[in-house]
Amino acid sequence: MPGLNPFGPRPAEGGAARPAPVRPVPARPAPKTAVRRDPAPSRLAYRLNRMMLRPLIRRLVRIGLPAFMAALVAGIWLSDETRRAHLSAGIDGIVDRIQNREAFLVHSMEIEGASAVVDKGLRAMLPVDLPASSFDIDLESLRERVLKLDAVEAVDLRIKPGGTLSAVVTERVPAVLWRHARGIELLDKTGHRVASATSRDVRGDLPIIAGEGADRAAPEALALLDAAGPILPRLRGLERVGERRWDVVLDRGQRIKLPEDGALRAFERAMAMDQAQQMLSRDVTVVDLRAEARPVVRIGLDAQNAIRRARGQQEIGPDGKPIPTETTAGKAGKTKKNSG
Fold first, then answer.
1. How would CATH label the architecture of 102-171?
2. Beta-strand runs (E) in 217-295
3. What's the whole-number average pLDDT of the chain?
4. 174-311 belongs to which CATH class?
5. What pTM did the predictor assign?
6. Could you please report the per-residue DSSP string of 107-169?
């Protein structure tokens, strides 16, 4: 039964049952109600969050700000002149030790394909005396300087293992002599100057061209010389006239005047006429081919007098005036004596 003491004497034993003491039940604490937090951020947090969404601001914070701080610290440290001097000396020392290592030193120079004059000039163009560091030799700048030599067409510069500077030179081959008002020069097949010559006998094996502007038309001149096969032994040279056309000069005072355009074609036609009719073997002084439709031939003085004799006309002299005959001279003498 409620209220009875279970540990008290039982009724059978003669003891009276005592009720259990009533104990007060503590009251349960009232549950605490949690305060709900507003999920919305503050105005400042919202604006900062929106700013961080911009790529520029993110780069500025992640890269710009650390870089600015590093530059500020470096600037403060380098503001002292003594620190700057020590830093510069240390960097120069490191660079000098690396550049002057044995692996980077150039001890000698070998040149292939160059004449003695070009060899001497190329060695004089080295910016430093050997042995020197390969870092002190600018191959590209040296190549540009070597190509300024008139006799050099191409050059290959490289530093070989073992500290050897190799230069493989391709020189220009003289193809023609050019005589002008300032002297005589040797030209290659493109008309580029190779060297100067003191006289025609220096390279007697080369053909000669003359006149202002002949160097710019050297390729055309060489084509004309190739076409002059049959009369090449008689050829004395080519003369540039008015910087626009050629005259072919032969021995015995003969001259072939070529047109400004189509000079090679006109010269080949003249060679064909010579082979068919032996035109240049006759007493002909000038063959004028400037007018393609009407070539003109000027005959010599002997041929002119032969024609005049055949026609019964009086012969002429080099000045173009008639030569007085003996009869005419005698009559002139008698007339002069009678008048005296």
1. Roll (3.10)
2. 235-241, 245-250, 255-257, 284-288
3. 83
4. alpha beta
5. 0.63
6. -EEEEES--HHHHHHHHHT-SSPSSEEGGG--HHHHHHHHHTSTTEEEEEEEEETTTEEEEEE
